[in-house]
Amino acid sequence: MISDSDITILFKILIGVAWIDGKIQSEERDYLYRLAKEKGVDNDPELYPWLYEFRSVSPTQCYEWVQEYLGDRPSSEKCQNLIEEISALIYSDSEVTSEEAQLITAIQQLDPNNNPPQTIQNAVLGSIQKLYKRWVLNQN
Fold it and tell me: What's the superkingdom here (predicted)?
C-alpha cells in the first residue's frame, strides 16, 4: 500500500519529469491530470502550483525529489516501481528526451539488483586488503 506522502512525492517526481526537458508536452499534461484525478490529488494544495503549471520544476529539484522518494538505500522494488511510473508518463507523448533517459538511467544505477558484480568485487577486494594487511603486520 502506498502512503499519502509517497503519492504526493511520486506526483512531484512525475511533474518534475514532465518539466525536465524545459516544457510540459500536452500529452504529458493530460496524463498527469488524469492520474491526479484517479489518485484524488488533483486539488492537493502541495501539488497544485506544479500540477497546474503556476510554478516550473528544475531538473535539480526533480532529482532531489527522486532522492527523497527512494531514500539512502532504495529497494529494487521501489526503484522498479518508480521507473514504471516515470516510463508511463514519458511514453504518453511518444517521445523520450535525453534528459528523461538520463533520469531513468540514474534510477537504474541506484537499483541494488543492478550492482551485484561491483558489490561482490568490492567485498573480494576488501578481503584481499585485510589479508595483505595481516601479512604485513606479521612480517614486522
Answer: Bacteria
